Amino acid sequence: MTETRNSQRKSVILLVSLALGMFGFAYALVPLYEVFCEVTGFNGKTSSRAADPANIPDARLASSDREVTIQFLAHVANGMPWEFRPTEHQLRVRLGEINTTHYYARNRAAQAVTGQAVPSVSPGYAAKYLHKVECFCFTQQHLEAGEEQEMPVRFYLDAELPEEVHTLSLSYTLFKVPDRVPQRVPDRVAVR
After folding, report:
1. What is the rounded CA–CA span in Å between residue 58 and residue 66?
2. Domain of 110: which CATH number?
């Protein structure tokens, strides 16, 4: 009887450990995938940081004669009450030269709304060659009711962009940032 109980106890411990391990792995998968995509540019994910100013090319020295087309796209996630679009749908750019374009946003809601843009690049492997010097996607954007603004994107394409890439798409999806819930202050503080 004791041997059966020990066997059952080991089975329960094993199953609980397995369930906790699976939960932990699933919980850690999203942040790990985010880091993987940012480091490798896999899935078209671009860096969420500005390009290092020390690495920005001098346009006179680093530009090449090669030109590619970059298309600009905009999407609004469900629940985001903004009008959001690029001011230019495409540009022909030289590799190594810094370019600027803008996106237009207008809050159509009756109250202030904060948004966050998430970029992606297609083809995905080309994301590591697109360097943003300035981008509205680096920070949250706050618009009052009815407010509108043009938001700049300054970027350059690395001269190492593979020869087979002739067109890139830079797409932003705009998400609503949830209102911050104030932290609950305890009614009473115990003094010891």
Report:
1. 16
2. 2.60.370.10
Residue 10 has pLDDT above 60, yes or no: yes
Whether residues 20 and 60 fall in one domain: no
Comparing 62 with 166, which gets the higher pLDDT?
A: 166
Q: How many angstroms separate the CA atoms of 135 and 49, rounded?
A: 9
CA distances from 98 to 23, 52, 94, 177 (A): 45, 13, 9, 30
**Confidence (pLDDT) at 36:** 59
The confidence band for 62, taking pLDDT boundaries of 50, 70 and 90, is low
Residue 91 in any domain: the answer is yes
Contacts of 132 (CB under 8 A, 6+ apart): 46, 47, 50, 51, 119, 138, 153, 154, 155
E strands present in the chain: 67-76, 82-86, 90-94, 99-107, 113-122, 130-135, 141-143, 148-157, 167-176
Band the pLDDT of 35: cuts 50, 70, 90: low
Task: Please report the pLDDT score of residue 19 as a whole number.
Answer: 82
pLDDT for 32 equals 60
Structure tokens at 111: 């109250």
What number of other Cβ atoms are within 10 A of residue 123's Cβ? 14
For residue 123, the number of C-alpha atoms closer than 13 Å in the C-beta half-sphere is 9
| pTM to 2 decimal places | 0.66
Domain of residue 6: give its range.
1-40
Number of domains in the chain: 2
Flag whether 119 is in a domain: yes
